[in-house]
Amino acid sequence: MSAPRTTVRRSIAAAAALPLLAVALTACGYGSEAKDDDARTSNVSSGGKKLSADSVKIGYFPNLTHATALVGIQEGLIAKELGGTTVKPSTFNAGPSEIEALNAGSIDIGFIGPSPSINGFTKSQGKNLRIISGSASGGVKLVVNPKKIKTLDDLKGKKIATPQLGNTQDVAFLNWISEKGWKVDAQSGKGDVSVVRSDNKVTPDAFKSGSLDGAWVPEPTASKLVAEGGKVLLDESTLWPDDKFVITNIIVSQKFLSEHPDVVEAVLRGTVNTNKWINANRDEAKASANAALKELSGKELPAEVLDPAWESIQITDDPLAATLQSQADHAVKAGLLEEPDLNGIYDLKPLNKILEAEGQPEVADASLGVK
């Protein structure tokens, strides 16, 4: 099946500085701190009748775990559902900046990890966002120096990186350490294992230099470490029921959802169609995602990194809500989050309406949906 491609022209506009949320559990599952990023904006319209909004502003990361956005925008599959309503995409490098953009109205819909979704919802007392769909599962691995670490028990006393204090992978690793019966101070990272918070951009060089013994990181960082001689010792998906856990959600501003439900539903039709196309055309979709990464970052991923990274990521409409609750529980257990009230964080009614029309089964909200 060939890709329904549309030509996308992007121009770069300066983005306003977006402040970090002053809390631990804010980073997305990719680890870089929020910075003053250039926002890539583009007027993309498929023509036809305009919906209730002139445009919809969509935020996402230039990262393989955001493949739904990369491919959906690259191939015009999201714009196709919006008729004359314009798609305006923006890219971010960290969860805090994307949440701030959503709060400020700079974006309407975003692709983002579970930790900032939880944090954004709880810090606003449940008033700023809803999770309206899943997007991706998996793609997180523990990669180690095989000369220093041969078994999981060998991690004791070693220096293992996570992307950022309180981010999705940091919480997962701290929980794994706890279940091993080892002790680590969550804030400092000191204990039976030295947890080193290291930006994913610098982790491969630190690993290559020998200053890190391993890392619990998302793709494609994990595969970059393997390319530097590392070995995958554990795939996080094996720790979850059915080998699935949420790594990327789709969120929406509650204000935009209330005022423009037709636009939200159209975007979701686009993401459902995108996910269907990706899963039916894995190789072609992989190439499309890599082409989008090259356009956004100026550099494509080499095959030795791209291929294993892509294989470990599952693209799904299911938000895997039960795993979001578990991730929140793990953060509470680690002392990085107060017990959150996640009731109402999901609104899956528009998604389930689309899935029903497609003859697909509904997805569940783990009793955390709007009443």
Explained architecture:
- The chain has 371 residues and is α/β, with parallel strands linked by helices.
- Helices cover 34% and strands 18% of the residues.
- The chain has helices spanning 67-74, 95-104, 114-123, 168-179, 203-209, 221-227, 254-259, 261-280, 282-297, 303-311, 321-333, 349-357, and strands spanning 11-13, 39-41, 55-60, 86-91, 109-112, 129-138, 140-144, 159-162, 194-197, 214-218, 231-235, 246-253, 313-315.
- A six-stranded mixed β-sheet has the order 4-3-5-12-6-13, sandwiched between helices.
- Helix 4 links the parallel strand 8 and strand 9 (194-197).
- Residues 1-41 have low confidence and may be disordered.
Summarize the structure.
The chain is an alpha/beta fold. Helices cover 34% and strands 18% of the residues.
